């Protein structure tokens, strides 16, 4: 059931990113704050992250570790790149479409995610065995422990970043006048 729920999350994440892409596209038609290609690239990077998450769900860690780990790497790195690119879009869309508070929150979450992604990858690459249950005295336990903490930090960074979309999704296009939210 865990794999199924990860696949559902990957689908909902991709859907959220597509809706955000459409919102930015509509806003950009009014105020021209970002290249349409940049917006599309951001969507593609985000979709790659969702595909990576689907790979993680479809290939169990102990059964096919190389494929599972490749999917995790794709999901985490693409996700971190996606939220960085969306942060850039947020700053470019100020003051018409984003508030300074939202922009700074997204920047904080993006930086926090990158600060966690790098040691997560480094420590995960140093683990020489693939297993589920670890004990503190075992070889590579420290690498596993640090990697797991960073993995959860990144995951929560993604969740909180998506929560910053709430206001964007609440405001419909007929709430816009002269390129500003009223």
UniProtKB/TrEMBL annotation:
One of its GO terms (cellular component) is endomembrane system. One of its GO terms (biological process) is regulation of autophagy. The keyword Transmembrane helix applies. The chain crosses the membrane at residues 6-24, 36-59, 71-91, 107-129, 141-166. Residues 1-170 form the CWH43-like N-terminal domain. It is found in: Endomembrane system. Pfam families: Frag1 (PF10277). It is a multi-pass membrane protein. Keywords: Membrane, Transmembrane, Transmembrane helix. The keyword Membrane applies. Its main location: membrane. Belongs to the DRAM/TMEM150 family. This is DNA damage regulated autophagy modulator 1. It comes from Laticauda laticaudata.
